[in-house]
Design brief:
heterodimer, A: alpha+beta, D-Maltodextrin-Binding Protein, domain 2, 2 domains, ten-stranded mixed β-sheet, 15 helices, 24% helix, B: mainly alpha, MetI-like fold, 13 helices, 0% strand, globular
């Protein structure tokens, strides 16, 4: 559920950033013939909005949708069953209401709108939902895991669907507001045509002959869309600009109206009078995988893991690696999750003396060595800081180079006892699944404990059980299962004379619904 | 002449096959994490295994190579792992942009380098020194620095050109010119310098030859000697330099395309390589080898036409 690649984060420290892993030009004088906005078009919509995007969809099949950067484009052409408001509240969309019909929370019943059609003319109904969810389960997309708990989907009647789960999944309603909830026209699902052209019920349709893979996508408002409130523009163009220099140039010249920048480029946008939207979606720091000491016996000792946490000067790391934009923290759960405990942000402070003492107590007074992967290109700066700070307390970091394209894969193979990463901070259950479950890439040694099991059990039936969630958070923080440093800010800049933008909680870029024209 | 062309073509095909096979094997030996990259960190190991099977990455390298080769002879290079775009389409839509940029640059470099080189060789003295100094300066500033400066000055400050490319299917000439002018200037400044240097020395060598003295002694005008005789004799050296420049530009566009967000081959190549998009990388390699072979062949043909001695050798 990570929204960015390590490379994107490392872009803060490198000049040429490439990514893997988030209108009528305002300038007026800039030549631009791709933007013949139908000035208002007689509606109260806002002309053409142009966004600079970092990643493009791999396919327009909704089962291949992802999170963050690779969810936003899908929202143009597809509605989801449930709408996630900017603050995270779930609201009706294609489903008018929904509830679990049993106490065990294994049957989720959704009532559907009856006035919706797909852009190919097919009606949206319960059969369409069944077709979509079944397709999602078998199409092996990036988010296929969202459907793991789904046992069966049945159409109760034309506008009612029952989703039956093999075990409770507290994030199911959230998933239905994300990739799992995107509804494509049943006839097109899984076809090659859908790889190239989306067919949904959404507010916009893609203009195929103006859209080019690797370059730009053009969407126009769909006539007769059921919810004009969400259809705020006549046209939305997505310009793929993986290079941050190109993004800032395009923003400053008005060739895009809004885009995500980084710590090396934001001053230029500030200078050009663009408006900042600042929010955090990730945490960065070390994952201390080997809590059982399988690969590196030293990490089995909680004092060693705590010593690592005390060794880092988080404020300095934030200043050096995150351009000073963000908040330091010692916990892996984000402020928008039920597990968040404010005082855990400062649980570990910079205290090399204490770190040395803990290492001595654990029997490592003479130091120890930990092997960590260094992704190239781009990871050099980060690992240099890690190595320096840990060397100060007597820990030697052995750096092993891993090509950036192989980094994630290598982490999951259990070849490293610890590694740097930038990870998404989702709702509690999603974060638990990502960080602590025994199936996640980020728990290669499948470490667990009775305390974690107990909390997981409580959360499984109630994902927002704050008591269990916070107990879980305290446990992993106090026992130093990770060494988080900070929550870096996403620096999203936009032209406030043209568009108003609201941040979307737990999403790398705002939802497409969050951009409103400024009249 | 025909024998020469056929011989060159045959050796070109041999080179193409060797490069393709070597690249394919090397790439596939290190393709262990492609499925994980496509699916992202949320995918379970089973999902990753299923994706590997879907992409055929669970097959032995030689089987994959056989499949790829049998497709390649029918010009079917497969589909991108990451965007599902057929390799042929992916390259087909980006090639015109890159070629337009590179060909425009090389033509400008050819014209200006010849004029500057001739001027320096004929006039010598301060003109020569000035050209030399300019050549060194132009050569020592990296293309991307020139690119960034041009964007800052002409796109951001004066807003004459686009900062990022606007090219899309059906774009008019105006968009192409607006989007490619700055990148072409950046490429030309960089390439012009060394080409002018080489052409200058080729000219000086020719001007020292006996036949020039003989021609002069017959009272033939300096202008005719220069353009009809010396230019023709100096051309092979110049052409070789330009052909190397052309191939160099194919690499040089990589960074320029990133800075200007131009949807060309360079960006495609970098993107595919970082992500491990094997079908696209293979397509790019084939394209590059073909371009190198074709450019060399064209240069040989022109040289043969200019200089009969080359035809027999």
């Amino acid at each position: 559920m990570k929204s960015r690649t390590p490379f994107a984060a490392a872009g803060l420290a490198s000049v040429v950033a490439l990514t893997l892993a988030a209108c009528a030009s305002g300038g007026g004088t800039t030549p631009s013939d791709s933007s013949s906005a139908p000035a208002g078009g007689g509606s109260d919509r806002g002309g053409t909005l142009t966004l600079g995007i970092l990643q493009e969809p791999q396919s327009w099949d909704p089962a291949q949708a992802h999170v963050g950067h690779r969810l936003q484009p899908f929202q143009l052409a597809y509605d989801s069953l449930i709408l996630r408001e900017p603050d995270g509240t779930l609201a009706p969309m294609l489903a008018t209401d929904w509830s679990y019909t049993d106490d065990a929370k294994t049957v989720l019943e959704l009532n559907l709108r009856t006035d919706v059609t797909f852009s190919d003319g097919a009606p949206f109904n319960a059969d369409a939902v069944v077709a979509n969810i079944e397709h999602f389960k078998t199409d092996n997309g990036p988010q296929a895991g969202m459907a793991t708990a789904i046992d069966s989907v049945t159409a109760v009647d034309a506008d009612t669907v029952d989703i039956t789960l093999s075990e409770p999944d507290p994030a199911m309603e959230y998933y239905l507001s994300q990739a799992l909830g995107l509804m494509g026209s049943p006839d097109s699902l899984g076809t090659d045509a859908m790889d190239r052209l989306p067919v949904g019920t959404g507010p916009y349709t893609m203009v195929a002959d103006k859209s080019v893979v690797g370059s730009q996508y053009v969407f126009v408002a769909r006539d007769g869309y059921w919810n004009p409130d969400l259809q705020k523009w006549d046209e939305i163009d997505l310009k793929l600009l993986p290079d941050v220099t190109a993004r800032v140039n395009a923003l400053v010249t008005g060739e895009v109206d809004a885009t995500l920048l980084d710590g090396t480029t934001f001053q230029q946008a500030e200078g050009a009078g663009k408006t900042l939207l600042e929010y955090a979606t990730d945490w960065q720091g070390l994952l201390l995988f080997d809590r059982d000491g399988t690969l590196n016996p030293a990490l089995k000792d909680v004092r060693v893991r705590q010593a690592i946490n005390y060794a880092f000067d988080r404020k300095n790391l934030l200043a050096q690696l995150g351009g000073g934009k963000g908040e330091v923290t010692s916990q892996v759960f984000g402020p928008d999750s039920s597990a968040y405990v404010p005082e855990l942000d400062t649980y570990y402070t910079y205290d090399p003396a204490k770190a040395k003492q803990l290492l001595a107590d654990a029997g490592y007074a003479n130091g120890l060595t930990i092997e960590m992967p260094l992704f190239t290109p781009g990871g050099e700066t980060i690992l240099t800081f890690v190595a320096q700070q840990l060397a100060d307390v007597g820990i030697t970091v052995k750096q092993t180079q891993v090509p950036i394209a192989d980094y994630q894969g290598e982490l999951g193979k259990g070849n490293f006892a610890a590694a740097w990463f930038s990870l998404f901070q989702g709702p509690t259950w999603v974060a638990y699944q990502q960080l602590l479950s025994d199936t996640t890439l980020y728990n290669p040694f499948k470490s667990t404990s009775p305390e974690i099991q107990a909390a997981a059990q409580a959360l499984r039936t109630n994902g927002d059980d704050a008591e269990a969630a916070q107990a879980l958070n305290r446990y992993v923080t106090e026992n130093a299962w990770f060494a988080p440093w900070f929550r870096p800010s996403q620096l999203y800049y936009y032209d406030a004379s043209k568009v108003a933008v609201v941040a979307q909680v737990q999403m790398a870029v705002p939802s497409i619904y969050n951009y409103s024209p400024v009249s | 002449m025909l024998t020469m062309i056929l011989r060159r073509l045959a050796s070109g095909v041999a080179v193409l096959i060797v490069v393709a096979v070597l690249t394919f094997v090397l790439l596939n030996l290190s393709a262990g994490n492609v499925a994980r990259n496509i699916l992202g960190d949320q995918a379970t190991p089973d999902a990753v295994a299923a994706k590997n099977a879907e992409l055929g990455l669970d097959q032995p390298v030689l089987t994959r190579l056989g499949d790829w080769l049998s497709g390649a002879v029918h010009l079917d290079f497969g589909k991108s792992f990451f965007t599902n775009e057929p390799v042929f389409t992916a390259i087909g839509s980006r090639l015109p942009v890159t070629l337009a940029m590179v060909i425009a640059s090389i033509l400008l470099i050819a014209v200006f380098a010849t004029l500057l080189g001739m001027l320096a060789a004929v006039r010598r003295g301060w003109v020569d020194s000035a050209v030399q100094v300019l050549a060194i300066v132009g050569n020592s500033i990296p293309g991307f620095v020139i690119g960034v400066l041009l964007v800052w000055l002409l796109a951001i400050t004066w807003q004459v050109f686009n900062a990022v490319s606007n090219i899309s299917p059906g774009s008019g000439v105006q968009t192409w010119v607006g989007s490619l002018t700055l990148p072409v200037i950046a490429l030309v400044i960089n390439g012009l310098a060394s080409a002018a240097q080489q052409i200058r020395s080729a000219f000086i060598r020719q001007l020292d030859q006996d036949y020039v003295r003989t021609l002069r002694s017959r009272g033939i005008s300096e202008r005719e000697i220069l353009f009809k005789h010396v230019l023709r004799s100096a051309a092979p050296a110049g052409l070789t330099v330009l052909s190397l420049q052309f191939i160099g530009l194919l690499g040089g566009v990589v960074i320029i395309e990133s800075i200007f967000a131009i949807p060309g081959m360079g960006r495609l190549a970098v993107d595919a390589t970082t992500k491990g998009d094997l079908p696209i990388v293979m397509g790019v390699v084939i394209y590059t080898v073909v371009v190198v072979i074709v450019v060399n062949l064209i240069v040989d043909i022109i040289n043969g036409w200019l200089n009969p001695k080359v035809r027999v050798s």
